[in-house]
Design a protein that fits this description.
With 237 residues, the chain is of the alpha+beta class. It folds into 2 domains: 6-80, Gyrase A, domain 2; 91-235, Cyclophilin (Beta Barrel). The protein is built from 6 helices and 13 strands. It starts with 5 loop residues before the first strand and ends with a helix.
Length: 237
């Protein structure tokens, strides 16, 4: 358990555990380990677990348990948590097509960073990213951290439409948009893998605690895998 570990009520049927004030691979691993233990211990008493950067929200069935028991389970799990390979998430490799027709901000990001497009691609594919949180939409995985040389602020004016599968960077985070939506991140490529399928088993290819690597593919492979390129209307919105 970290020195800053604490638990608060979060409504009539939820509690939230804080593991610190900032994210790190160690904090993320601790949250992942605790979530696994809580899920095993509470079983049917549990309604939902929502991990984030430095916290874990536990939603429980008030007809079966109460916040006292849930708090005890959380404290025990935090005390017993270990960041060993047995609690580590899986490594997921996502194919990525980088190009002018897939990443409208790739060239400008490279120019601002004083790098070539090829160097940006090499840096983006050269890192292993931790899944720190899922949100703002189902399947939107916040991945960190990108190499500081390709970190980029959000766009001053967000796009009205960002296409499904767009690979993006904002500050030192990267992500794949799971569905068409507004967004202000810098678009550098496209991924043909569905990041959220409500009928899939599992519905998402990644979860909090997993690690992600991007593997560069060419245009033909991207299209063969079912990818759809950004249209001018979407890219320019």
């Amino acid at each position: 358990m970290t020195a800053t570990f604490s638990i608060d009520r979060a409504g009539e049927s939820a509690v939230i555990a804080y593991f610190g004030t900032s994210s790190s691979p160690e904090v993320s691993a601790a949250i992942h380990a605790v979530a696994q233990q809580v899920r095993r211990e509470l079983g049917g008493e549990l309604v939902d677990l929502i991990p984030s950067y430095a916290s874990l929200l536990v939603v429980y069935d008030p007809l079966q348990t109460d916040h006292h028991r849930v708090g005890d389970v959380l404290r025990t799990a935090a005390n017993n948590s270990v960041t060993s390979s047995s609690t580590a998430g899986k490594l997921v490799t996502l194919p990525a097509y980088y190009g002018e027709d897939s990443g409208p901000d790739l060239g400008s990001l490279a120019a601002t960073a004083g790098l070539s497009v090829e160097e940006v691609i090499r840096l983006h594919t050269g890192m292993e990213y931790r899944v720190y949180a899922i949100g703002f939409a189902p399947g939107f995985a916040y991945l960190g951290e990108v190499d500081e040389r390709i970190a980029a602020p959000r766009l001053a004016t967000p796009r009205l439409k960002v296409p499904r599968g767009a690979i993006a960077i904002a500050d030192r985070q990267t992500a794949v948009y799971p569905a068409t939506s507004p967004g202000g991140w810098n678009l550098i490529g496209m991924c043909p893998v569905a990041m959220f399928d409500p009928d899939g088993n599992p519905p998402m290819p990644v979860n909090v605690g997993d690690s992600v690597r991007f593997e560069a593919i060419d245009r033909g492979t991207f299209l063969e895998l079912g990818g759809e390129l950004i249209t001018d209307a979407v890219a320019g919105s």
